[in-house]
Design brief:
388 residues; four-stranded mixed sheet; alpha+beta
Length: 388
């Protein structure tokens, strides 16, 4: 992306709140528009936007709100769409957060590009969120540009036989890029998206087949992977010359898999602490050996397991923010899986990698819920009963 274009889009973003008011007046006077309500985000100008963020709409979902039974204000999102039914184009979208708080988007269309502008609103302010362009070449998407307060990003598409085959994704201000590839089924429905970074790492960011699979099978594979694959990687790759008091998996319920991995050294804490007294020390960022800091050489991302990560993240994303029963059930499933992983790994002979302290535990924690005490209680009891 050339510097002139970046500066032009950045300038447009800086003036977005002023131009948005003028655009909104035009939309208000457009009499052909019909308002429709939905609990789903049905439209963005970016191609395959819902697949890219792994938030596809279930096939059996009801798309429009037609009665009170179709909307639960305690758990559902509420979107307002203004649509021209003749052209089937959306010109306005509001994500209604209640109390005069919303994210509002206006869409513009020409033969050469589509454009969207989004602002955040409350009773006190209007804030620019992003401005996006989808440029076309020979009738097909060629370039998607997005500008926000975090800078400008660009996707350049390669198309073939009326299908998007790949894209190059660039962050000009950060000198970073990656490459995406689309796969399709026999009916030309998108089946998979894989991104590859410039240093060779591969990430599956969408997999349609896995979306239909039973979660029990997915969790069973993840359990085996964390026990056998990660356990064996620790044995093969980790060499520490001082006593270790824990192997720690950290996760969050927003994206419960994969976790991070940390190894706690006795030298990092007070000596001779009992397992119960160690609870406050189970915090991965405080440990020298931490996968996020790349001080542990473990690979959580073999391609064959990545689709299972997406399935679990999708479940987390679909649970309404106020649906406590669904969240509690899913939270307990994840907790139980990590508990089983920790119990199994407690039996591993890690002597080739490090020496275990007397108070050694394999333990997990949700770093947002801070449930290490709950894990600790279960695992200390298990360790005692198993004479480990």
């Amino acid at each position: 992306m050339n510097t002139l274009l970046i500066n032009q889009i950045q300038k447009e973003f800086n003036n977005l709140t002023d131009t948005f008011r003028l655009l909104e007046e035009t939309i208000t006077n457009y009499e052909k528009l019909v308002t429709m309500l939905s609990t789903h985000n049905l439209y963005e100008i970016e191609p395959y936007f819902s697949e890219i963020i792994n938030k596809t709409i279930p096939k059996d979902a009801k798309l429009l709100i037609e009665s009170e039974d179709d909307y639960d204000p305690d758990s559902d999102d509420l979107y307002h769409f203004k649509i021209d039914l003749e052209t089937r184009k959306t010109y306005f979208k509001k994500l209604d957060l209640g109390g005069d708080i919303s994210y509002d988007t206006i869409y513009e269309y020409t033969d050469n590009y589509y454009k969207s502008t989004t602002v955040y609103r409350n009773t006190e302010q209007q804030k620019a969120i992003k401005i996006c362009y989808l440029n076309f070449k020979d009738g097909m998407p060629f370039e998607y540009i997005e500008c926000s307060e975090y800078g400008v990003t660009q996707k350049t598409y390669t198309c073939e036989n009326n299908l998007i085959k790949s894209y190059q994704y660039e962050w000009p201000n950060q000198n970073h890029q990656c490459f995406g590839e689309f796969s399709y089924d026999l009916e030309y429905n998108i089946s998979q998206i894989i991104e590859r970074t410039s240093d060779g790492q591969e990430r599956i960011i969408y997999n349609a087949i896995n979306n239909e699979e039973n979660i029990v099978s997915v969790l069973a594979r993840l359990e085996i992977f964390l026990i056998e694959d990660i356990g064996n990687q620790i044995l093969e790759k980790v060499k520490i010359d001082e006593p270790v008091y824990c192997v720690l998996f950290e996760y969050s319920m927003q994206n419960p898999f994969p976790p991070t991995l940390a190894i706690g050294l006795v030298s990092e804490i007070e000596e001779n602490l009992k397992e119960e007294e160690l609870i406050v020390h189970y915090n991965a960022p405080d440990m020298h050996y931490f996968s996020e800091d790349e001080t542990i050489d473990v690979d959580f991302y073999p391609l064959e397991i990545q689709s299972d990560y997406l399935k679990t993240s999708e479940i987390s994303n679909r649970i309404g923010w106020n649906d406590e029963d669904a969240f509690d059930e899913w939270n307990q499933q994840v907790f139980n899986l990590y508990l089983k992983v920790c119990k199994r790994l407690m039996h591993y002979d890690f002597s080739k990698s490090f020496k275990k302290s007397d108070n050694f535990l394999v333990i997990a924690r949700d770093f947002e819920a801070c449930n290490e005490e709950e894990f600790g209680k279960e695992l200390i009891q298990y360790k005692t009963c198993s004479n480990l």
